[in-house]
Amino acid sequence: MACSSNLTLQKEVSQVLNSLRMGSIIGGCEDGLIYALYNEFCYGYESDDGCVSTQLPECQKDGDKFDQKSGDFIDRSYSNCYDNASISLGDCMQKCWEDCSCVGFTTSSAETGCIIWSGNGEFQVYESGIPVKKYVLVSSKSSKRKQKTWIWIVIIVAVVIPLLISGFIFYIIMRRRKLQDEKEKEEEYIRKLKASDSFNNTNLREEDGGEVHNLKIYSFGFILAATNNFSSENKLEEGGFGPVYKGKFPDEREVAVKRLSRTSGQGLVEFKNELILIAKVQHTNLVRVIGCCIHGDEKMLTYES
Which EC number(s) are documented for this chain (predicted)? Predict the structure, then answer.
């Protein structure tokens, strides 16, 4: 029998008074077929075991069913008690099924009647502590909505996680490429500095803190360690050409590091000429420049403190 015929099946109460007091209600209408509302309630769709057809209530839809749950109805639900020894579990189910305001039912404690809940309240599931289970009417729309929600969750997870992983890998690759470009640019600056005849006359050498009285090229990591990562506590002043930080070399020498502003527009030639000029000028009232550092586009001068 197809669901489109708007028919549901029920068994004559006189034939199931005993058999309907135990078991679980699993009925409904799905996949184009009507199946019984109870596992012994016309199970198998036979028509020769006492089943009769009735009209499907207008308020019920294909796929509506009763689920046995442990919990209680809350908020705007109210209950009606039917204390009658002749009322079976199947009768309770039928009353709820045909009542458009019914949201669930159960048998009374003595199993001589039933309790039916109506209204707009929600059902709260309890994990434990409620021995009496209730049969809750579950709408096919609710089931489909939950199913769609899970489908969307799976789709989102399946799409978002690969995107996040791809984004992280892309970030790592771009960061490494940027660091490599900065290193190559730094090496190119240093190579050009060393290629200058005037700079060679000042005996510029790349060294990290040795006791040499000539100009030195310090690595960026060496300067970071000396200034405590350019911490605000080490900042001395903010000049027109950039901030000045105090630092300390491993040999306990105190120095001052001037970070030239990137917006100054000073190129490699100007930086080289300034460094050569300062190195050549020796005066008792002037601090002596002892070296420089180039990191990417950033240039720094190191002075005796």
Answer: 2.7.11.1
